[in-house]
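does this look right to u?? adenosine-5'-diphosphate version
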Amino acid sequence: MSDIIRLLPDHIANQIAAGEVIQRPASAVKELLENAVDAGATDIRLIIQDAGKQLVQVVDNGSGMSETDVRMAFERHATSKISKIEDLFSIRTMGFRGEALASIAAVSQVEVRTRREPDAAGTFLEIENSRVIRQEPAAAPTGTSISMKNLFFNIPARRNFLKSNAAEMRHIIDEFVHVALAYPELFFSLTSNGQQQYHLEKGTLKQRIVQLMGTSYQTKLVSVSEETDYMNIYGFIGKPETAKKTRGDQYFFVNRRFIRSPYLHHAIASAFQELLPPDTYPAYVLFIDLDPAQVDINVHPTKQEIKFEDEKIIYAFVQAAVRHALAQFSITPTLDFDLDPRIQQLDAVNKPFTDVEKQQASASTLYKTFTEKNTAHRIDPSAASGLRHWKDVLEAGQAESSTEQAAFFLTETPSFEDKKDSSEIDPGSCLQVSLTYILYASPKGVFLIHQQRAHEKILLERYQSALEGKSVPSQTCLFPVNLQLNTQDAILISELLSELQLLGYHLEAFGKDSFVIRGIPADTVQGHERSDLELLLEQYKHFSPALKLDRRERLVRSHARQRSIKAGQKLNAAEMQQLVTDLFQCTQPASGNAGQAVYILLDDTALLRLLDR
Ligand code: ADP
Ligand code: MG
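got this back:
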């Protein structure tokens, strides 16, 4: 028998290795922006076509590359940033692995134009499938422009795997925002399909935050700044009143590298403690700088997770710094003026967080739906319509008998009788169990209904038919409410405006990243417009991408989830009755929005069997 092991050809090995670094257009955005920063550029322009699927281009005015270097740069493990292993422990640049350009070249068509300041001519280079197909001297401004075209043109399977343009664009903007926040002293712009989306003049960190996160932050940032021998922390936190129900304005950087760390997020959120209404996220843009030897940024290829030498110290330090900053502005605002002159401009310094403000903030709890006035819940008064789906209910119940939990409960389908069944919807026959289940006794048997799943189901069907044209009744806001978002969320909302309208939310674009809420669903309580929408947005953003649902379906499901009665909520008799009636009007009452059982039915036979076991 012959031997079977072969060495992979270079271009295949490159493609496989590239997969770790370049997963989507946004990965290239991150790498190219970081390279521009490392090259000392002060002006960095990102140009996108077709959400990066056609083009990701970064133009910088940095050091540029020599004719030889630019060729070398695309070789795997080619880097100018480290030369020996010890360098890894003192790395101050964003890149160091020498993998990014090689990876990009393995999975796209690349064009580079670059010139160093003293050189008379620059270089133009074209690469495809990791191979240089053209290199020639060319006129070029000082700096580098790298274009990545047709990502994954040579790996159709991966190209097909890319998400919708909206989704890919969101990833791109995330990466752009991270780098732009980390380097406020540099100019950045982002142009997508010919439209400039960001134009960020150089400035202070505070100015950059306001540029990116919205002018509403102008007077609502509190400076954090502490220095120790071990590490420094600096940046801003939003005043408690800026806390939102939606995540998105939380940024943490270690040595100017954006990282995701639920652990450190917890440190920050816990420092806010009672100052925040429940389920809200404080805004923050915080930087810690420490000796590179104390962190291992090398643990994840996309470098968003890091390992600290001593996590607990960092946790305590971050928490203390945020506490200190909060204390400064709310209790002893005049003490530490010399700490940071910027803090003197802050409204917070002059106006401590009052009890009234605190109260206002915490009053924004979840809406109270399901009240008597709740017109959207009213059912068609004709008795027949109330019973429309009894048969389905019973059949569905039977179908469910094949699922594990319900399997032994059901024997035969109770037959569907005539209209005298309307007496079955009879107030008083409901009982709430463990604040989560409704025990509903009917002549057919006992239904054990999961209240949250049931309500989610009801709302989902209602919202689905809303999007089909039977729009949900809306009420005009007494006072139109301004909704200021960050750009990512603003883009998201703009894509959903017409659907939101059908769901009863009337929003109008109003200046950059800002909307006016003019109308809300008739069954919502006024005064919570902003937090309701933020919560909806939050729910929408965190909908599992594993479920391949389109935008509309995601929206209605998020909305149903957000607006539903929750497990643990006490219901009175009328509310339970309404829920039961509404549930059995659904076209598919038995299976929940995520496929789980909404209820089980214990009929006579099942009950007897349970008792006689
Ligand atoms: P790394 O950044 O880890 O060194 P890359 O593959 O991203 O690896 O880049 C390889 C090398 O190419 C860099 O070390 C740098 O010398 C050079 N380079 C890349 N981008 C630029 C740029 N925009 N301007 C100047 N030099 C660059
Ligand atoms: Mg790099």
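The pocket of adenosine-5'-diphosphate (ligand 1) is lined by residues 31, 35-36, 38-39, 60, 62-65, 73, 78-81, 95-102, 144 (CB under 6 Å). idk if thats expected tbh
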